[in-house]
Sequence to fold (292 residues):
Amino acid sequence: MNPIKKFDFTPILGWSVSRYDTFTTCRRRYYYTYYAKFDPEYSADKINRLKKMTSIPLEVGNIVHDIIKVLLERLRKTDQQIDGRRFYDYARKITGQYCQKTFSEIYYNEIQQLDIDDIYESVRLNLSNLLNSQRFMWLLQNAIKHKDQWVIEPPGYGQTVIRGLKAYCKVDFLFPVDDVLYIMDWKTGKADQTKHSKQMVGYSAWAAFHFDHAPERIRPIIAYLKPDYAEETLSVSQSDTDRFADIVENETREMYAYCANIEENIPKEKSLFEKTNVSIFCDYCNFRELCR
Ligand code: SF4
Fold:
């Protein structure tokens, strides 16, 4: 497979599912997330400290993703059997380390302290569901043959170009079996068909761009790790990829409309980035103390 293409830095904004999701959820949240250094009211330090806070569901996802990454990297190096006890001891240790971060639930006094055992139990269930799945067995029997070509959470942000526009689509795990490129995305939260399918078509576009592969021979798989292991396999055609490019183009233009300078990615004035009226979005927002 070709190496992943590299890009020179440009300040112009790049589309991503999460960027546009933030943009549609609340324009003010979008401003705080992407334009902290331009804020006339609060220091960038303060905004970025709030932005960096994690939450219990988010952190379970981070821990599970990072441990699966280590697991796949190990499989790439050695075919020795996984020692279950050591593997889960490692998962427990990592959980303890990651729980040292600032959690929004603590910061906003929703809970007094973290229940690390409970968080670990969730991590353990996600991991054991994957390890006991038929897909994992299939990986060991089929995908392992081409392990030298595995792409495991590539470094960087997954930059690509879609119809001449900058976009980010970072895959969890990509590997070839015969002439098909498989892309697996681990999900530790609830299924969200529309959002996740859009994300997966983006990953296919990323793979098609970087590896010059026909979309029809790219198979994205959404792997839900909890409560039980379940998958959704998508088939992506050239017309899906074209439709996706239309969406990226439209959504990018919508976000450009909030830039005073598009090329330099400088935002218009803060007051144009309105606060949402949907109170449930605020209930889980890291920036809620700035909006009271
Ligand atoms: S607290 Fe509500 S209004 Fe303020 S940034 Fe967050 S989602 Fe937007």
Q: What stands out?
A: Residues 75 and 144 are 8 Å apart (CA to CA). Residues 1-27+146-268 form one domain. Strands lie at 151-152, 159-162, 165-168, 173-177, 180-187, 218-224, 230-233, 259-261, 266-267. The chain has a mean pLDDT of 95.
